[in-house]
Amino acid sequence: MNRFDYVRAQTVAEAVSAASEPGAAYLAAGTNLLDLMKGGVTRPNRLVDVTHLPDLDRIERLPDGGFRVGALVRNSDLAYDPTFAKAYPSVAEALLSGASAQLRNAATVAGNLMQRTRCPYFYDPASACNKREPGAGCEARGGETRLHAILGWSEHCIATHPSDFCVSLVALDAEVEIAGHEGTRKVSLDAFHRLPGDAPQHESVLTPGELIVALHLPAASAAFADHSRYMKIRDRTSYAFAVVSAAASLRLDHGRIVEGRLALGGVALKPWRAREAEVVLAGAEISETLFRQAADAALVAAKPSGDNAFKIELARRLIVRTLARAAAGTPARMPALPASAFASEKDTLHA
Amino acid sequence: MGQHDSLTVSLRVNGEPHDIALDDPRVTLLDLLRERLGLTGSKKGCDRGQCGACTVLVDGRRVNSCLSLAISLDGSEITTIEGLAQGDTLHPVQAAFIAHDGFQCGFCTPGQIMSAVGLIREGHAGDDPERVREAMSGNLCRCGAYIGITEAVLDAQARMASDRQGEAA
Ligand SMILES: Cc1cc2nc3c(=O)[nH]c(=O)nc-3n(C[C@H](O)[C@H](O)[C@H](O)COP(=O)(O)OP(=O)(O)OC[C@H]3O[C@@H](n4cnc5c(N)ncnc54)[C@H](O)[C@@H]3O)c2cc1C
Ligand code: SF4
Ligand code: FES
Ligand code: FES
């Protein structure tokens, strides 16, 4: 790990000003940042510790019924908050399918959004990586691409965003509240992360010094609470990143879908909102055929970025199964194995 | 705001207050415990959040000490494996690991036990072995003592609940 200056911010304004210097980085729980620094993947010369900032660790119910979740709320505290989890159960399920209990106890909401890709070539300073070093090339091309993208990638970078949390959030129109030099602004989570294009080093819309202060979930999205699920395919039952994941939320009226939401994880450099599929679902009668059509629509533009064409078919089947689970209804209690395909649940469909 | 030239971190570790001067902010909680305080019970398996051998409680919550920057935890209360037993009386989780053969080589065991103590406090798993296994997934055991570990956690949890009831009665 390189040497760095340690700055403990006491106010948001202090944090923003201390982190605006080139080479500075925010430190939250450190579960991603310290890992990257130990591997020499990132080398910030100043860490601005935000964990002592007051008031950013609160989960607030707003007067309009929506939620404002402070940037420092720990992943486990949000997942186990009874009112939040009741309103947005697929978000709680996604959170509990990520990492381990220890990591979730530490990891913050903002840190989860800002976590970096798990591309093994990004993690290996000896490999060429456009994200680490713009213009260096991308060693993942032609390499091991099991965790790489099938949507929205470019020849410059084929990495994926590893968060589970973000997938359920983007399906439910979450927004990010950001503090900067000129006060605060709000950006939809869908517009927050950037696709790689020809500049994969630019990962989000944050400008230097900008600090995530909260996450907002609209009241309207709680209307999906009775039919919201998250599913995640991983290489072992627990404590592994998604190969492919899906979040599905439905609003039903007598077997007909009034409105459907679908998002995918592990497929692109951002949590992938599948709006084409939502058009197919809107107003339609529930059926396996419908779910297959929705899955096809979601994956029209999918193409392998290497030796990973299997992910397209895997995503197709996972979408059908997640929609079926959502249609069957949110379970009264969080499943013993959150988001798992191996859980002994009464799935209506084994796609 | 302080651009700290001399860094001091104040922690309560197993009930004892410590003010520790750090010459460098890079020290993780794990390295601080092992190398500055001589508490070598917490193990360094991967040093990257992937194995759970370094699990300790920070303010009562289990976390990976290898991915925690010590200076950032200023003011916290830390509990390590060394802080569980009361003199010669083992903590119920420690006793249950012995009774149920919850280990072979023992390298992962301090982390397993601290994780189990955290799990029982969290109280989400109940008496369902599947939920216990899921909630213990952040602790790997290369010896594969998982069956004994799950039994030990369930048994310790039941004992601690009945002890509490006994006290209340
Ligand atoms: C072994 C392992 C397994 C994991 N498995 C999963 C998994 O299955 N699913 C999953 O989703 N995640 C997984 N994770 C990742 C984990 O979710 C992240 O490490 C965690 O969410 C990061 O949060 P943090 O508070 O520790 O952030 P930090 O590590 O402190 O920071 C992460 C990044 O966010 C920036 N940042 C932090 N706070 C702010 C802020 N307020 N505003 C702007 N920028 C900020 C930092 O500068 C840094 O770049 C895993 C991690 C490990 C180590
Ligand atoms: S896929 Fe992206 S992150 Fe991975 S090596 Fe290529 S440029 Fe780097
Ligand atoms: S040593 Fe901390 S998780 Fe492995
Ligand atoms: S007892 Fe040997 S690693 Fe668990």
TrEMBL record, chain A:
SUPFAM superfamilies: CO dehydrogenase flavoprotein C-terminal domain-like (SSF55447), FAD-binding/transporter-associated domain-like (SSF56176). Keywords: FAD, Flavoprotein. Transmembrane segments: none annotated. The keyword Flavoprotein applies. The keyword Ligase does not apply. InterPro entries: CO_DH_flav_C, CO_DH_flav_C_dom_sf, Diverse_Substr_Oxidored, FAD-bd_PCMH, FAD-bd_PCMH-like_sf, FAD-bd_PCMH_sub1, FAD-bd_PCMH_sub2, Mopterin_DH_FAD-bd. Residues 1-222 form the FAD-binding PCMH-type domain. It holds the Pfam family FAD_binding_5. SMART domains: CO_deh_flav_C. PANTHER family: XANTHINE DEHYDROGENASE FAD-BINDING SUBUNIT XDHB-RELATED, XANTHINE DEHYDROGENASE SUBUNIT C-RELATED. This is Aldehyde oxidoreductase FAD-binding subunit PaoB. The gene is paoB_3.
TrEMBL record, chain B:
PROSITE patterns: 2FE2S_FER_1, 2FE2S_FER_2. InterPro entries: 2Fe-2S-bd (IPR002888), 2Fe-2S-bd_dom_sf (IPR036884), 2Fe-2S_ferredoxin-like_sf (IPR036010), 2Fe-2S_ferredoxin-type (IPR001041), 2Fe2S_fd_BS (IPR006058), Aldehyde_Oxdr_Iron-Sulfur (IPR052914), Beta-grasp_dom_sf (IPR012675). Keywords: Iron, Metal-binding, Oxidoreductase. It comes from the Bacteria. Residues 7-84 form the 2Fe-2S ferredoxin-type domain. Pfam families: Fer2 (PF00111), Fer2_2 (PF01799). PANTHER family: OXIDOREDUCTASE WITH IRON-SULFUR SUBUNIT (PTHR45331:SF2), OXIDOREDUCTASE, IRON-SULPHUR BINDING SUBUNIT-RELATED-RELATED (PTHR45331). This is Aldehyde oxidoreductase iron-sulfur-binding subunit PaoA.
